[in-house]
Amino acid sequence: MFNFAYLDIFFLGVALAIDAMVVAFCYGLILKPYKMSNGIKIAVTAAIFQCFMPILGFILSFVTAEFLDDWITHIDHWISFIIFAILGLKVMKDSWNEGCDDVCGIKTQTLTINMLLMMGIATSIDALCAGVIIFAQQFLIIQSAIFIGLITFVLVLIGFMLSRVLKTLPTRYLGIVGGVVLIFLGVKVLYEHLS
Fold this sequence. Notes:
Blueprint (H helix, E strand, L loop, with lengths): L3 H27 L5 H28 L2 H33 L2 E2 L2 E2 L6 H10 L2 H13 L3 H22 L8 H24 L1
Antiparallel strand pairs: 1-2
Helix pairs in contact: 1-2, 1-6, 1-7, 2-4, 2-5, 2-6, 3-4, 3-5, 3-7
């Protein structure tokens, strides 16, 4: 018989992965040259964070008083907003300074470990709260976290690959658009939690 808990976790995983998918799409636009290895690195990083954070949220829910759960839900959206804003401003600054064409074409913008870590944290803060939901619903946390991680990996990889169709546009403008989108995601997270 079909277990509706899996359907719930599937939709939760898709909802959690959307921000990471959009970020991967933006990175796919600004990273030059386009390499599938970059997409895999982004997808693996996002999947690891999206898998780990619900487990952490579940553990916090299990071992802490309600005070800590309330505290997390009061600051998680601010942390996401700040990280998204920093990422967006950095992408715009780097694109403006380095996105010009040179003699060989478009300058290379590399994917650094710091970029990956910031992206992983920024896109997985909501997954921490998802751990609280999983605890409250009494779902199996390890299976749920792995399922969420797999969904994230697939959607992020798709987002990165979709950026390929826009690679012919100038890097400087793509970077600015990508930075604006990242800042918008931060504002969206803030709005959803404050409204």
